[in-house]
Amino acid sequence: MEVVKKNSNNNLLSKIATNNGHGENSPYFDGWKAYDANPFNLQRNPGGVIQMGLAENQLCFDLIQKWVEGNANASICTPQGSTDFKETAIFQDYHGLPEFRAAIANFMSQVRGNRVKFDPARIVMSGGATGAHETVAFCLANPGEAFLVPTPYYPGFDRDLRWRTGVELVPVVCESSNNFKITREALETAYDNAILANIKVKGLLITNPSNPLGTFLDKDTLKDLVSFINEKNIHLVCDEIYAGTVTSGDDFVSIAEVIQEEPTCNLDLIHIVYSLSKDMGFPGFRVGIIYSYNDNVVNIARKMSSFGLVSTQTQHMLASMLSDNKFVENFISESRVRLANRHDMFTRGLSQVGIGSLESNAGLFIWMDLRRFLKEPTFESEITFWKIIINEIKLNVSPGQSFHCSEPGWYRVCFANMDDETTMIALRRIKTFVLKSKKLEIKTTRQMWQSNQHLRLSSRRLDDMLTPHRMSPHSPLASPLVRAQT
Ligand SMILES: Cc1ncc(COP(=O)(O)O)c(C=O)c1O
């Protein structure tokens, strides 16, 4: 028999398998690869890359561990809990364990200050918010139809909503001039652009609180969004995965609260995506939730959830943990305090070396403004500077373009996936870098000044220095890129 050569062409595979829809080639994932190749470790590799591209909440695992130790019967793998092993192992109903759905509904209310109630009958499981988004997209849109998404947005949406569904995303361009607010004008423009391009818009997807901005929407904006989607008769999908990851207490407003005050809102258009990956810090458990106010969506999503159920072992343990109201209450408030402290420590450290960021009070990250470090206000310069951050400062942060930010020079830096010591080292590296580049800047300016004096400021040199390009804040004179290029 002739030996068949290993076939490298893609004809053997499906279009979905070969269309690169996972997005692994984006800078967002490149940063992770750089970290994987040289990961920081305080003892074993102190010069390695510090992972600041991961929105993980690791600040409260001591509280979780204590609860686990005090509640051995919540696990089916302990002598105290093993009597539930068989029943748990054989349960496979896609509705999920009733006690799990009740506990999740209760937890969702608690992280929203108990101002709204959630109905356990509407809780649908999925494999993380990742799976939830795809399921919602499958339920609401056909291939080629689109969701509007305000920018900057979580890069995973390009994979989760688009890859296997064939659904499109149309950016709603938000700008730094008004702190990236979602305006009616920007929504209408995006909607009209989609129509001009012959794309049918089926919904608006918002992330509230926002990843990567770390801000949340005020009630008036949410009301405006509700009236926009009702006018257009399109869906509103609200990713509230960071609902409990808010440092300023009760200020966050959920869409669930807003629709209570909007009697004319068509509830069939409203859907919430949630997960325990951020508020509890359990991305490994893959607990995603679709909470829809539309009965048909609940029913269909539940059937689809067969493709991404949460293991009953996990449901069993979490049902116990999340129905412990005292523990949850303490966990949420302590988590807020620790996040706020870390957030302040990081922003203070940055501001000491003149690095600003968008004012924020939610999420696990800061939206850093590094525009002044770019040689030119272009996305090429943004990537060039990002390479310096990865290769010289050795921090994996994520460049704004991977979040579809419309303006170059913004970078997301995560601060809750490490201990205090690593945070201090990261800050020290940033400070050292900025101070070094400042020295270089002074030296370069002085050298220029001396040589210009030497030349007695010949008119040609003077012209050079005064041209807007030379004097812009993006001038190479003011940029550490000078160092990188030489
Ligand atoms: C806004 C947003 N949605 C969804 C996800 C995916 O979450 P999960 O781990 O639950 O799939 C993330 C993860 O970073 C996120 O930031």
UniProtKB/TrEMBL annotation:
Keywords: Aminotransferase, Pyridoxal phosphate, Transferase. Residues 50-430 form the Aminotransferase class I/classII large domain. Signal peptide: none annotated. One of its GO terms (molecular function) is 1-aminocyclopropane-1-carboxylate synthase activity. Coiled coil: none annotated. InterPro entries: Aminotransferase_I/II_large, Ethylene_sulfur-biosynth, NHTrfase_class1_PyrdxlP-BS, PyrdxlP-dep_Trfase, PyrdxlP-dep_Trfase_major, PyrdxlP-dep_Trfase_small. SUPFAM superfamilies: PLP-dependent transferases (SSF53383). Gene3D superfamilies: Aspartate Aminotransferase, domain 1, Type I PLP-dependent aspartate aminotransferase-like (Major domain). It comes from the Eukaryota. It holds the Pfam family Aminotran_1_2. CDD domains: AAT_like. Belongs to the class-I pyridoxal-phosphate-dependent aminotransferase family. This is Aminotransferase, class I/classII. It comes from Artemisia annua (Sweet wormwood). The lineage of its organism: Eukaryota, Viridiplantae, Streptophyta, Embryophyta, Tracheophyta.
